[in-house]
Amino acid sequence: MKDTPRYLASFNTRNLSRQLSDLLIIGSGIAGLTMALKCCQKYKVILLTKGELKDTTTWYAQGGVATAMSKEDSPELHYRDTMQAGAGLCDSEAVKVLVNEARDSIENLISLGVDFDRALSGEIKLGREGGHSLSRVLHSGDSTGAEILSTLVANMKSCPGIQVKENVFALDFLTYKNRCVGVLVFDSKEKKLVAYFAKAVILAAGGCGQLYDITTSPLIATGDGVAMAYRAGAEVCDMEFIQFHPTALSDKKSPRFLITEALRGEGAYLRDCANKRFMVGVHPMAELAPRDIVVREIVKAMKRCGEDHVYLDATHIPAEKLRKRFPMIWDRCKEDGYDLSKNLVPVSPAAHYMMGGVKTDVFGRTSLPGLHASGEVTCSGIHGANRLASNSLLEGLVFSKRICDVLKEDFEEMPKEGISGIDVSYDFVGEKKYIDISKCKRVLREAMVSFVGVIRTQDELRMTLNKISDLSSEVLATKFDRVEEFELQNMLIVARLVTQSALMREESRGAHFRSDFPKTDDLKWKKHIILKRDLELPIYLEV
Ligand code: FAD
Ligand code: SIN
Fold it and tell me: Where are the beta strands (DSSP E) in 107-150?
C-alpha cells in the first residue's frame, strides 16, 4: 500500500542527537532480553523499550514454556503436535530448530536462576495445555512470565555492555542504501527525536492484541514493530492469523484477565448455560483441543445460550490444589467474587496472539538487510495458522540466541561510511491538527472484534477495510507528537494488514475462519500471504 507514509515524522539526522552501538534492540520482553544477555559480552548493546522494563506481554505469561523433558516425550512428538496445531502452514525447518534447541534454552534459563516448579523428588513438574499430546509445559505457578522476566532483568546487572533506555518510543527504522542502519526514536519525556545508529538492529517489539477491544494483551501491544517494519519495506507475512484464547475472565475490564489453559490441563471443564460439557464429542481431546477449535465451539455455545460467556468448572478439583498451583488466578477470581473450588467462572474468548508478523528465516533475518527480528513480532514459520500453546516464550528464547550467532557476518555488510558517517532525512507530508484519538481507537477496536475476530465474512471484512481506510486517510496524514498518537497510526496500519489478508484468504484454516468459505482449501490456499509496502499485490508463497 503505497499510501502508507515511509516515516511518521519529518527529520534530518544531521540535526538530531545521535547514539551509536553495535547492536540496537527494541523491546524488553523475553525475546529482547535473551538477545541482550547473549550478545552483551561481545558487543556494545543498547536496548530500548517504550515503557519500563517489565511493561511487556512476557510479564503476563501464565501457562509456561513447552519443551520435551519427560521420558515419554521427545522433540519429535513436540514437532508433531506443533505441526498439527499449525494446520498446514508451519515451516518444517523452523519447527525442527525450535523443538531441537528447546532443551538447551531451558537449561540456560535454569542456570540463570529461573525457578520452575518441581516435585519433592526435584524433578521439574510439567503441565498440560491444549493441542499437546502429553504434559510438557514447564511453569512457575501461574506467573511463569514474571519469574522468567525478573530473572533475566536481574542477570543484566552482570553485563555492563548493555545500556538500557526506558520510556523511549521507537518510531521508525532508519534506512540507507536499502539497509537498516538504525532507529528514529521519540523520547517521550524530552519530547524530541533522537537518531540511534547501529551495525545491526533487532526488532523484539511483541504483538498487536490491542487492535481488539477484547484482548488479554497489555497496553504496549499496539503492533508498532510490524508497522515500522512494513513502512521500511520489510516483508510481512500471514497477518490474517490472530489467535483468540478461549478462557479470559468475562468481566468488562480491559485488558481481560487470562485464566490459563493449564487449568483445563489440570482437569477443569467448559460448560454451557445448560451445564453441558459441550467440547465432549466435538474433538477427541475435548477441552484440550487446539485453541482455534475450542474458541469456535465457545462462540457457538454463547450464541445458543444468548450469553456473552460460557463457564469454566474447576469445582471437582480440590481447593488446596487449585490455590497452590494457580495462586494468582485463585486470588483474582476471589476479588471478583468467585471461589474457584465452589463456583463456575464466566469466561469468553479474547484476542491473544499474532501468528503472523515480520517474515524471518531460521536466523531471525528479515527481508531488509541489517534488520533481524525475534519473538511475537515475527512470522518465523513455527506457528503456521494456529500456535501451539506455550510455544511462544520458547520461540523468543531459541531464535534470539541464534541471531547472535550470525551477527558478525551482518556487520561486515555495513556501508563503508560506517554508522557515524551516515545521515538520513525525510519530509512528512501532513499537518498538525486535533484528532480525537480515544474515539478513533474505540471505533477501530470495536470493529476488529466484531468483524475481524473469530468468525469472518467477505462483506464484513470489506466494510471494516473501508472504515480503516477512512480513519487512515486522516490519521496517517496528521503530524503528531505524542506516543498514543503514533500508536494509533501503527494500529491502523496493522489493522489494515490483518483485514486485507483475511479478505484475501478465501478458505478457513487454523485461527482464520470464514463462514462464507468454511472449508480448508489446500489446493488453492496452502500458501502464505506476504505483503510489502512498495507492492500493490501480495506475494503468495507455497508451503
Ligand atoms: P513482549 O514481551 O510483548 O515485549 C515487547 C517489548 O517491546 C516490550 O518491552 C514493549 O514495551 C516493547 N515495545 C513495543 N513497541 C515498542 C516501541 N515502539 N518502542 C519501544 N519499545 C517497544 N506464551 C507462552 O509461550 N506461554 C504462556 O504461558 C503465555 N501466556 C500468555 C499470557 C497472556 C496473558 C498473554 C497476553 C500472552 C501469553 N503468551 C504465552 C504469549 C507470550 O507471552 C508472548 O507471545 C511473548 O511473551 C512475547 O514476547 P516478546 O519478547 O516477543 O514481546
Ligand atoms: C495460557 O496460559 O493459557 C497461555 C499460554 C499461551 O498463550 O501459550
Answer: 126-127, 137-138
CB atoms within 10 A of CB 190: 11
CATH class, range 431-542: mainly alpha
Give CA–CA dist 417/441, Å, rounded: 42
Catalytic residue, from 179, 264, 291, 456: name it.
291
Question: Residue 169 Cα, ligand 2 centroid: separation in angstroms?
Answer: 27
What residue ranges line ligand 1, CB within 6 angstroms? 26-32, 48-51, 55-58, 60-64, 144-145, 169-170, 204-206, 216-217, 220, 224-225, 258, 352-353, 375-377, 390-393, 396
Three-state SS for 292? helix
Q: Give the integer Cα–Cα distance in Å for 137 and 148.
A: 14
DSSP code of residue 128? -
Domain coordinates in residue numbering, the chain: 11-19+32-220+364-404, 242-352, 431-542
Cell numbers found for residue 474: 486522516
* Residue indicated by cell numbers 522433540: 75
Percent of the chain with pLDDT over 90: 94
CATH of domain 11-19+32-220+364-404: 3.50.50.60
The rounded Å distance from CA 148 to ligand 1 centre is 12
Against a cut of 0.90, is the pTM above it? yes
Higher pLDDT, 160 or 391: 391
Taking the C-alpha atoms of residue 239 and residue 521, their distance in angstroms, rounded to an integer, is 18
In angstroms, the CA 41 to CA 62 distance is 31
- Contact between 347 and 309 under an 8 Å Cβ cutoff? The reply is yes
Quick check: CB of 389 below 6 Å from ligand 2? yes
- Asked if residue 484 lies in contact with residue 518, where contact means CB atoms within 8 angstroms, the answer is no
Instruction: Give the span between the Cα atoms of 146 and 54, in whole angstroms.
Output: 8
Tell me if residue 103 is catalytic. no
203 C-alpha to ligand 1 centroid (Å): 12
Residue 24 reports pLDDT greater than 90: yes
pLDDT digits (tens, 9 = 90+) for 324-358: 999 999 999 999 999 999 999 999 999 999 999 99
Q: Do domains 11-19+32-220+364-404 and 431-542 have the same CATH topology?
A: no
Mean pLDDT estimate for the chain = 96
Residue with cell 524530552: 190
For ligand 1, the distance from its centroid to the CA atom of residue 83, given in whole angstroms, is 23
What topology does CATH give the domain 242-352? Flavocytochrome C3; Chain A, domain 1 (3.90.700)
The answer to whether the CB of 270 falls within 8 A of the CB of 311 is: yes
Most distant pair of Cα atoms in the chain: their distance: 70
Query: In this structure, is the dihedral angle defined by the CA atoms of residues 334, 339, 343 and 345, taken in order, positive or negative?
Result: positive
Count Cβ atoms below 10 Å from residue 521 Cβ, excluding itself.
13
CA separation for the pair 188, 182 (Å, rounded): 18
What distance in Å separates the CA atoms of residue 291 and residue 244, rounded to the nearest whole number?
7
* Sign of the alpha-carbon torsion through 5, 11, 16, 22: positive
∠ CA 17-18-22, rounded to 5°:
165
Helices assigned H by DSSP within 427-521: 437-451, 458-475, 483-504
